[in-house]
Each structure stands twice: as structure tokens, then as C-alpha cells.
Design brief:
With 112 residues, the protein is mainly α. It contains six helices and no strands.
Length: 112
């Protein structure tokens, strides 16, 4: 599995290895890490425009990066445990969903 396949494909293949799936979600523009980065940018913009309090960066934005860091650590492993990968991906997806829900409660439509 080379990084070329994981960065150019629009959807992960079910035949990829755990390492390939981790690389896809971290480096691809359709992966979970990219979605989280977009939300972080939106939150930073809203905080700078004084539309949200600065605590949002800590609670939902770029300083809340535990799930992203866990996925990055998995991409650096030689052998990726399926359970560890699923936990990291589900944590990141839950964080994205929670942030979208919090933004919609504040009246800001979320990005997809």
C-alpha cells in the first residue's frame, strides 16, 4: 500500500490493510482528519470574528486534538491493530459529530 492510493481515492476500499485505512483517513481530502481540520478552521474564524467565545477553540477546535493525535500515531506504526484503528476512527467521528451539533445549536450551519 503506497500513500498515492490513499491520497487520491475518494472512498476507502474494503480490501485495504489497516495501515492503508489509517493513511486514508489522515491524509485524504475525503478522510476524517480533513473534515476535522475544516471544522477547526470554521471555529477559529468564528472566534476571531467574535461570534463565538474563545473557549470554543479548547472545547471543539484545534486545541481539542486527542483523537487526531491518536490517528496520527496509528499512521506511524508498522503494524496497525484493527481494534486500535476502529477506536481512533470512532473517536474522531464522534468528535466531528459533537462539534457539528454544537455549531448547529449556536445557529451556524455546519459543513459536510
Amino acid at each position: 500500500m503506497t500513500i498515492d492510493y490513499t491520497t487520491t481515492d475518494k472512498q476507502p476500499s474494503r480490501y485495504w490493510s489497516n495501515k492503508g485505512l489509517a493513511l486514508y483517513h489522515y491524509f485524504n481530502d475525503s478522510g476524517l482528519h480533513f473534515k476535522k481540520k475544516c471544522l477547526n478552521s470554521k471555529i477559529s474564524y468564528l472566534v476571531k470574528a467574535d461570534k463565538l467565545p474563545s473557549g470554543w477553540i479548547v472545547a471543539h477546535g484545534s486545541l481539542n486534538s486527542y483523537a487526531e493525535d491518536a490517528l496520527f500515531e496509528i499512521t506511524q506504526m508498522k503494524r496497525v491493530n484493527r481494534r486500535d484503528l476502529r477506536i481512533a476512527l470512532s473517536m474522531l467521528q464522534m468528535e466531528i459529530d459533537h462539534t457539528k451539533e454544537a455549531l448547529s445549536k449556536e445557529g451556524y450551519p455546519s459543513i459536510s
